[in-house]
Structure formats: C-alpha cells, structure tokens
Design brief:
The complex is a heterodimer.
Chain A (H helix, E strand, L loop, with lengths): L8 E5 L4 H10 L4 E6 L19 E4 L5 H12 L3 E4 L5 H4 L4 H7 L4 E6 L14 H7 L20 H23 L3 E6 H7 L2 H10 L16 E5 L6 E5 L3 H10 L3 H5 L6 H6 L1 H12 L4 H10 L3 E4 L3 H7 L1 H5 L5 E3 L6 E3 L7 E2 L16 H8 L4 H9 L5
Parallel strand pairs in A: 1-2, 1-4, 2-3, 4-5, 5-6
Antiparallel strand pairs in A: 7-8, 8-9, 10-11
Helix pairs in contact in A: 1-6, 6-7
Chain B lengths: L12 E4 L6 H9 L3 E6 L23 H6 L3 E5 L5 H12 L3 E4 L5 H4 L4 H7 L4 E6 L14 H7 L2 H4 L16 H23 L4 E5 H6 L4 H10 L20 E4 L2 E4 L9 H9 L5 H5 L12 H16 L3 H11 L4 E2 L3 H6 L1 H5 L3 E6 L4 E6 L4 E2 L17 H8 L4 H9 L4
Parallel strand pairs in B: 1-2, 1-4, 2-3, 4-5, 5-6
Antiparallel strand pairs in B: 7-8, 8-9, 10-11
Helix pairs in contact in B: 1-8
Classes of the chains: A alpha/beta, B alpha/beta.
Chain lengths: ~400, ~425
C-alpha cells in the first residue's frame, strides 16, 4: 500500500541538506529511516525542524561514547542501509566506517555522500553546495554574457541526492540478486558534472568553452522571460517552430506580424531577436503573467509564469490538484505544516504516504526497547550516563 | 563494439522511446548495466538535431548532446504508429522490464500501446512516463521548454539580477536532466515493488515537479511558517543587514566566496594577511562574532575591499589549491575546460575515454555517477548510430527474416 519500501531499515547519520534529502527519498517511500541525533548539536545545520525529515524516526544517541557506539552497532546489525554525509574519514575514526559495519552486518549497504568523494587529494575539503555549484561549472553558464556569473544557490545539493537514491535502490536490487551489500562512495562534484555532460563533450571535441547566454537558446525566438503586469511578475515564452510562431501572433492579436518577413522564419526571428523581445514585452507588460501563460498554452505555445514560492505553495492550481505540497500535523501538536514535497514521481499502484517529521528523540522507546531489547532500567541508566540524549 | 555490459541492473531490459526530455533516464539505467534499447523513429530521434555537434557539423550522427545522454544503449528504428511497428513493439515488450516514454499524456493510448495494453502483454512491465506536467491535472496537455519548466519550477524567481529578466541556466536543459534522473529513481522504486509482488505499474514523472523539487528547503519553510518569500533575486542576502558579495573576479576568471553565514572568514583572512592584503577593519574585526549577518554594510565593504584585491592577484587554480590546503569554503567558478583539469576528478579517474570508431577517435566523457565497492555504474558503450542494432535485434532476436526487413524498411516501419 503506502509503504513501498516497507521492511527496509535505514540508519541515518546525515546532516545539512544532501544527506537528509537522500534519506527523505527513502523514508517517503516507506522505508524505516532512523535518524541518529544528539541533543547537544544544532539540528540539521541551518534547516528548520523536521523539514527534511518527513516520514523519519528520530533517536538521540551519542555514538562517540563506547556504549553509544555499541548500541549503534547493534542497530546496524538489524538494518539494511546506512547513509552518512560527514567529512570523509569521520565515521571511520568513530568506529562506524564500512569496514567496521561489514563485520557486524556483512550485507549492509552503506552510502557516503560528500563534496568531492572519499579518495583523492581534495577528499577532506568541506564546503557548501553554494560554492560547489561553481566547481561543477554551473555558475559559469548561468546569467548574462556581459556580466559576472549568475548565483544559483546550492544547486548540486539537489542533484546529488537523486544519484544517491538511485544508487541505493540499485544496491537493494543487487543485494536481492546476489546477497551482497556494498559501499557507495558518492561525490557531489561528480554528480554535478553529470549535468554538464553535453558542454563537457563540446569542450573535449571542439575546444569550445561554454559561456553565459542569458535566456537565449540556439533555435528558438521568442525565448525569454517577459515582464508582465504587477511588481516583478514575468512569463517565460518559448517559440521553436513556424507553426508556434503563427499561433503566437494570433494570441497577441497581430496576424500581420506573422507575415512580417523580419520574423517569419526561425533564422529571421533569431536575427531580429532583440526587436522581437521588445514587441513581445509590449504585449505582456499589460497582462498578468498567468493570463499570458494560459492564453499561450491554449494556443499550443510553451509558456509559463515565473512562479514564486507563494505561487507554488498557495496559488498554482496544477500543483494543488496533484497535491504536491502536503499538509502534515506539526510534530508535538499545534496545527499543520507543509514540508518540502515527497517522492519525485507518482506510482500508479503504490501511492505514497507522507508522514510528519519526528520530534528529537521521539522514537527512543521504539528503537531501544522494541528493536534493541533494552529494558526501562537500561535506558534510564544510559540516559543518566549521557549515552541516550 | 563488443557488449561489455555488467552492473547492478544486468538482468533487466529497458525500451527507451523518449526524446530529449527523458534521455537521461535510460542512460542511468544503462550505465547501471541494464540492456537499454533506444527506439527511434526511422529518420532518427529528433534529439539528434540538438547541438553542440562534433566539429560543429550539424549531422544526426554527430550530435554531442545525443552522445552524452545515450551512452550504454543499443539502438533500433521503429515506427510505432504503423501496424507492423506496433506488433513488433508488442513483441519487444514481452521481454522488457521497463518502457520509458516522453510522449504527450494519452498518446500511447491512442496507439493501443498505453499502460493498460502493455500490462496485458506483460504484467510485470514498468512504464516510466516523462511528461511536461504529469499524467493528471489541469496542465497535463500543456507544452514545455526548459525555460518554461525552470520558470514555473521556481528556480528563476529565486536568483537572477533584479534589473533584467529572470534567467535559466544556459545551454542544454537542466530541467530535463532532473526529470530523467527522477524517472530512473521511479523505475527502480517500481522494480523494488515488483520484486515483492510481481506486478509492474506506471511511473508518472512531471518535468514541472522535478524542477520544483530544487527549491531550497529554507524557502519552502520560510513561506510555510512566516509567509516570507525567501529569495536571492537581486543578490539580496535574506535575513542580513548587508549585501555580501558572492562571486568575485580573480586573475583568470571568477571565484565563489561569501563572508558570513556558516562560512567562517578566518582561514581566508589569514591567507590574505600573510600576503599583505588587509586593512584596519580586517585587522580589528572579531571573526568569532556569531551575528556576522548583522554587520553593517560599511564594515562589510571594508572587509571586501582587500579581499577583492587578493583574489585578483591569484588564479583559479591557485585559489582552489589554497582553499583545499587551508580549509577555506571557496571554489573557483570552473569552466568546462577547468573541470577537465580538476586534479581531484583526475585522481579519482572520473573522466573516461569512449571509443567512437566511426569517427576514428576516443572522446572523454564524465564517467560513472558513483563508486561502488561491488560493481560501479559505468559507460558500457557509446551512443548508438541510427538503426545500428536493427539486425541484431530484429533478425537474431525476433527472427524477422532479411526479406521481411526489406519490406519493413520500404514500408517506412524501420
């Protein structure tokens, strides 16, 4: 039913964004993801309570203490997957490296995700996704040719989890075939480089270095975001074929333009693109972005409003229809909240169920008693000793 | 090229009907070892007309875009709209585990090849459908383009200069790559379910939603809790008393570095000062103050001034090396040429040379997306030529005779 990965247990030793998004991809599909946290540390870096932890369980365990490490080992012995994204070497030093865990659970699947991989001269370097977007070539090709590279935020933080989740699902499949677990060394830089592949080949073969092109696209015009009515409102429009051009001219109520030789072919439209952009803007500026989008799409021209987070979460009828942002009970009571969306796809026979994120240590009883078989007295003692937070 | 296919998905076969919107999905499955057969229309897939091209020659067999996204696939041509084409396709579905498509919703149904038809032929088959807006909802029949997906997905409103239109990422579509990866993720989730139950299903992947998945968590949260539109458009630093510079010119390009937030300035300042780039504000600044975001603009400007001069005195390669040595959270803005020379990627043997015998060369590609202690993802063969494996699959596997193949060719079926 709602628990596609039901029966799969994941030990989650992740922080910041890439790691938690990786395990969120598993928990939202029904895996039992147990996030190990410590009360002393800020939760998940800058990210607010529970937002990347939907459908996960939380325990507070200080695994840097010998007793805590032993409990962590006992938990791994009853788990299928371990995911971590600490600086390379950190978990090895703490007795939670793959070689240690393999002895405890020979078919364990362990994934380490970091900036640049577990090996090589730059392995130990820490940085944020914000900067890694630069190293993976994305900033260089974002923005305007006459200006500095464009800022794209922590772009690779959203590329890497995808490859991480794919690798884990493939590893589960491989374990079913062979009975073997494995260690997965995932570099966020190498994931990001996948998304540069065509431009990389262009550099290898033609010695052409990809640069910023604004919103221009080789074979389309109009192809830009056009200012619409209201403050900072815009609509993207992309016209590729002559047929789309004819439709476009009809929508803007200017059939004469369709016959104007300055714009009637792709080559002509590309040659006179700036003039064309002005013409388009003169029409869009007096209309709401949604109206531009709706009328273009009704005529078969690709167009889309530049949506803000408000548009997406509160207004867009399509995302609402598909229940993209789901309302969940706030952990600990006190109303509802909406977390980042669930799985990146919908399955026709196994709909997903998004569950609220956990409170810190909310599942200590379940994990320490039901899974690890500790008594109330054991737990009280461990709490006293600071092993259980 | 001999088939050197191995990998975690070796037992499985995928039929790939996608155009540019979904090509990455099959590449990922192929790099993981699945037998992926790209099915193109007889004239070749429209994605072959997308540049860049080998030596800038616009030829369907020389599209580098095509090369990059179709590694580890074999290729056949088939017109699935023709009666013979449909029958052949159905035969292929019998032995397929995945069918990947990116047609408009409902198109395969009109051909009698939608999920309900495929399920009858092979109940275990997994149909991955990649579309602009998904299989349901008011926008389901709308068209997309990368710039449209990026706009609606929320990525353009978040960043960009305030005095110009919001921008997409240039060149090949990023949105389609996110969606392709999401399709592969969905395919493998459905495969897991199939292993437990024996049943296949349809995977619905929306390009719009794949793009919207890239919104920073802080933005979703800020809107949900405080109705604050957290965005960086116009390079504003939200929740900050000043505007901090993010991208700086250096001797031979640009470098990404920002003071404040979670990026402590001290190691960089130490390096700068050791080379004489400093001033009184830098010297007297308390680098441990936790409220850097509240530092006034004048102070930040003063700190940034010698920083800018320091960057201008170094190359990208020097800054990368120094950042790694000194644990500074800084990276140069790499060009594709810089990426190819990145010492870390070279040390990890990330780049792989793939033979293109018909062009008489080997081309360097980004290699596997991860390293596995068992059996890593890797490129097993270059992208297929048009109809390259027709004979292999139609004659040897399906037992179609040479004579029949001639008829099918003349009939425009293959």
């Amino acid at each position: 039913m709602g628990k596609l990965l039901g029966g799969v247990r994941v030990v989650d030793v992740t922080t910041f964004v890439t790691g938690p998004l990786t395990t969120k991809g598993l928990s939202d599909l029904g895996a039992e993801v147990i996030k190990i946290e410590t009360r002393g540390r800020a939760r998940g870096g800058a990210v607010n309570l529970s937002h990347t932890d939907t459908s996960k369980l939380s325990i507070t365990l200080n695994f840097t203490s010998p007793k805590g490490l032993e409990l962590a080992h006992r938990l791994v012995a009853q788990s299928d997957i371990v995911v971590e994204n600490h600086a390379p070497g950190t978990l090895n030093r703490r007795g939670l490296g793959y070689e240690d865990l393999k002895k405890i659970k020979p078919d364990i699947i362990m994934l380490s995700s970091c900036m640049q991989g577990q090996t090589g001269p730059y392995a130990s370097h820490a940085a944020f996704g914000h900067q890694l977007a630069a190293l993976t070539g994305i900033n260089q090709i974002t923005g305007w040719p006459d200006r500095e590279p464009g800022w794209v935020g922590p772009y690779t933080d959203f590329v890497a989890p995808r490859y991480n989740i794919i690798a884990i699902l493939a590893a589960l499949e491989y374990r079913s075939q062979t009975g073997k677990g494995q260690y997965l060394d995932m570099s966020q830089c190498e994931a990001g480089a996948q998304f540069m592949a065509p431009a990389i080949l262009d550099c290898v073969v033609n010695r052409q270095v990809a640069n910023r092109m604004g919103n221009k696209y080789a074979s389309a015009a109009p192809h830009n975001a056009y200012r619409c009515q209201g403050e900072d409102r815009w609509c993207a429009i992309a016209v590729f074929t002559d047929e789309e051009w004819q439709s476009f001219c009809k929508v803007i109520g200017n059939p004469a333009l369709a016959k104007n030789p300055r714009f009637s072919t792709v080559l002509a439209r590309k040659d006179n693109e700036e003039e064309l952009d002005k013409l388009v803007s003169e029409w869009t500026i007096n209309r709401p972005a949604e109206e531009v989008m709706n009328s273009m799409q009704a005529a078969g021209v690709a167009a889309g409003a530049v949506e803000t987070i408000e548009d997406q979460m509160d207004k867009d009828p399509h995302l609402k229809y598909r229940n993209f942002f789901r309302e969940l009970d706030r952990p600990g009571g006190g109303g509802k909240y909406r977390a980042p969306p669930g799985p990146h796809f919908l399955l026709s026979k196994t709909p997903y169920e998004l569950r609220r994120g956990p409170l810190l240590g909310e599942h200590n009883d379940y994990v320490f008693k039901d899974i690890l078989g500790l008594s109330n007295e054991d737990i009280a003692e461990l709490v006293n000793e600071g092993v259980i937070g | 090229m001999a088939d050197k296919r191995e990998g975690m998905l070796r037992p499985y076969r995928a039929l790939d009907l996608t155009d540019e919107k979904g090509l990455l999905c099959g590449k990922i499955l192929g790099d993981l070892g699945a037998d992926v057969i790209k099915i193109e229309r007889p004239a070749g897939d429209p994605a072959r007309s997308i540049g860049p091209f080998y030596h800038n020659e616009p030829d369907p067999e020389k599209s580098l875009f095509w090369f990059a996204l179709n590694t580890s696939k074999r290729g056949i041509t088939l017109n699935i709209e023709s009666a013979d084409g449909k029958e052949i396709f159905k035969k292929l579905v019998k032995n397929a585990d995945f069918v990947i498509e990116s047609f408009p919703p409902g198109y395969l149904d009109t051909l009698g090849l939608g999920y309900s038809a495929l399920e009858k032929i092979n109940p275990a088959v997994i149909l991955v459908s990649i579309t602009p807006f998904g299989q349901t909802g008011p926008y389901r029949d709308w068209k997309t383009a990368d710039i449209v997906a990026w706009a609606m997905g929320g990525e353009m409103a978040l960043f960009s200069d305030i005095d110009r239109p919001p921008v997409r990422i240039s060149h090949h579509s990023q949105a389609y790559l996110h969606t392709g990866a999401d399709g592969a993720m969905g395919a493998l989730a459905a495969l897991y379910h199939r292993r437990k139950t024996g049943e296949g299903q349809q995977v619905d992947v929306s390009i719009f939603e794949s793009a919207a998945q890239n919104t920073p968590i802080s933005t979703t949260t800020a809107w949900d809790i405080r109705k604050t539109p957290l965005q960086w458009r116009g390079h504003e630093s939200p929740n900050s008393a000043h505007k901090a510079k993010q991208l700086w010119p250096c001797k031979d390009g640009w470098v990404s570095w920002a003071y404040g937030g979670n990026t402590p300035g001290l190691p960089l300042v130490g390096w700068m000062e050791s080379e004489g780039f400093t001033n009184d504000v830098v010297k007297g600044f308390d680098w441990n103050r936790p409220d850097f975001a509240q530092a006034p603009q004048e102070v930040v400007d003063q700190i940034e001034e010698p920083t800018g001069r320091f960057f201008m005195s170094h190359t990208k390669a020097e800054l990368l090396d120094g950042a790694v040595m000194r644990q500074i959270m800084l990276y140069p803005v790499a060009t594709t040429a810089d990426m190819l020379e990145n010492p870390q990627l070279i040390a990890r043997e990330f780049w792989v040379d793939v033979e293109h015998a018909e062009l008489g060369i080997r081309i360097t590609y980004p290699g596997g997306f991860g390293i596995s202690s068992e059996i890593p993802p890797r490129i097993s063969r270059r992208a297929p030529l048009i109809g390259e494996h027709n004979q292999e699959i139609y004659e040897k596997e399906l037992g179609i005779t040479r004579e029949q193949l001639v008829i099918l060719k003349e009939g425009g079926v293959i």
